[in-house]
């Protein structure tokens, strides 16, 4: 394989590279494939930027629900910026090489921002629970200083749990064909390229996933069970529908975030028996679709609320 590269004889760590992969077998039509990818990034960046601009300039939107939405938009913008250079670089310029240090930096930002987004979705679930179950105390519970502290905790958790990963990966020698399955770097893929014992990375990666994404998803589920219990106790059908309508966009965002992530994990776990094309497509769906759809979902939600009112 002409693109394969071994680091066995490399005397300098920084001289080794990874080779990213676009869509195998479709190299002749990369320019055409780049068009939908470019449009997805434009929708994501413009959509999330517009959300941030509207929330910042409209004083009536300076309330907890929209502050949490702005946190989600900032996280989505960060993920778009972290993946766009390598993804579009492959499809537009067939630029596949990425140095180890650049790869480690990219996976740090991708994973930390992903865990931050999971935390923000949990905060948004908590926000909806307070708004529906205790509306009279909503403003006194979710005060601006408290929201800032909650946001900082989300960022710190995402950064702290991912911070060791580049250093754990740096210990390894990479002596296999360093060809990754995606157009961006992920920890679970990079560690498989090592010819060293990866048990520590594997165990730590599992611990991080359980303590962040899995824990957050269970707490979000618990929040919605309690929300549903509260809503069912409301006598008025109109009030019940209105309360549930405020959760629709958040539920969509949760499903867009967790379902592709679970799908990608399953495909990677049983990767030997699945199609390589399926792994590649799941990787793109996992990172790009939520970033593009979240602004659309929340725009539609605003129109829905206006219609109900």
Architecture (CATH level 2) name = Up-down Bundle
The CATH class, by name, is: Mainly Alpha
Q: Any idea what the shape is?
A: globular
Q: β content, as a range?
A: under 5%
Q: What's the CATH H-level superfamily name?
A: Rhodopsin 7-helix transmembrane proteins
Number of strand segments: 2
State the domain count. Answer: 1
Order of helices and strands: EHHEHHHHHHHHH
Terminus-to-terminus distance: 62 Å
The biggest beta sheet is recorded as: 2 strands, antiparallel
In order across it, which strands form the biggest sheet?
A: 1-2
Poorly predicted regions: 1-14, 304-309
CATH topology: Rhopdopsin 7-helix transmembrane proteins
Task: Give the mean pLDDT.
Answer: 85
Give the % helix: over 70%
Q: What's the alpha carbon Rg, rounded to whole Å?
A: 21 Å
Helical segment tally?
A: 11
The helix-and-strand class reads mainly alpha
Membrane topology: Multi-pass membrane protein
Keywords: Cell membrane, G-protein coupled receptor, Membrane, Olfaction, Receptor, Sensory transduction, Transducer, Transmembrane, Transmembrane helix
GO molecular function: G protein-coupled receptor activity; olfactory receptor activity
Pfam families: 7tm_4
